[in-house]
Amino acid sequence: MTELPTHLHYTVEHEWLDDGAPATVGITGIAADALGDIVYLELPAVGEEVIAGAVVGEIESTKSVSELYSPVSGTVVEINQAAVEDPSVVNSDPYGQGWLLKVDVASTGPLLTAAEYTAQNAG
């Protein structure tokens, strides 16, 4: 199993969130591995309001199309244009260069620690 950074927060839908201001959002290595080769990202526009738990985009891989959920409510302030142009970076570096969007957070949804996320996804 992919090693999870312990300083991040996680959702049951496999997104991660850091404590930055603005907060950075991405998908977990577990999700990236399960999806396979990611070939397309549809992300919200800068300035768009997102709601915790709501769908904010799509991730398309050679296997399937999956929805991306926001772990927070707030305003999108940046998207990772490099990942949009080369979605494979999400597979190769999901916790670094493969981040997806940055949000000026108004509130958070339910979040898990790395240990809670690992326990939920064991087996």
TrEMBL record:
<dbReference type="InterPro" id="IPR003016">
    <property type="entry name" value="2-oxoA_DH_lipoyl-BS"/>
</dbReference>
<comment type="subunit">
    <text>The glycine cleavage system is composed of four proteins: P, T, L and H.</text>
</comment>
<keyword id="KW-0450">Lipoyl</keyword>
<comment type="function">
    <text>The glycine cleavage system catalyzes the degradation of glycine. The H protein shuttles the methylamine group of glycine from the P protein to the T protein.</text>
</comment>
<dbReference type="GO" id="GO:0009249">
    <property type="term" value="P:protein lipoylation"/>
</dbReference>
<feature type="domain" description="Lipoyl-binding">
    <location>
        <begin position="22"/>
        <end position="104"/>
    </location>
</feature>
<dbReference type="InterPro" id="IPR000089">
    <property type="entry name" value="Biotin_lipoyl"/>
</dbReference>
<protein>
    <recommendedName>
        <fullName>Glycine cleavage system H protein</fullName>
    </recommendedName>
</protein>
<dbReference type="InterPro" id="IPR033753">
    <property type="entry name" value="GCV_H/Fam206"/>
</dbReference>
<dbReference type="InterPro" id="IPR011053">
    <property type="entry name" value="Single_hybrid_motif"/>
</dbReference>
<dbReference type="InterPro" id="IPR017453">
    <property type="entry name" value="GCV_H_sub"/>
</dbReference>
<dbReference type="InterPro" id="IPR002930">
    <property type="entry name" value="GCV_H"/>
</dbReference>
<comment type="similarity">
    <text>Belongs to the GcvH family.</text>
</comment>
<dbReference type="GO" id="GO:0005960">
    <property type="term" value="C:glycine cleavage complex"/>
</dbReference>
<feature type="modified residue" description="N6-lipoyllysine">
    <location>
        <position position="63"/>
    </location>
</feature>
<dbReference type="Pfam" id="PF01597">
    <property type="entry name" value="GCV_H"/>
</dbReference>
<dbReference type="GO" id="GO:0005829">
    <property type="term" value="C:cytosol"/>
</dbReference>
<dbReference type="GO" id="GO:0019464">
    <property type="term" value="P:glycine decarboxylation via glycine cleavage system"/>
</dbReference>
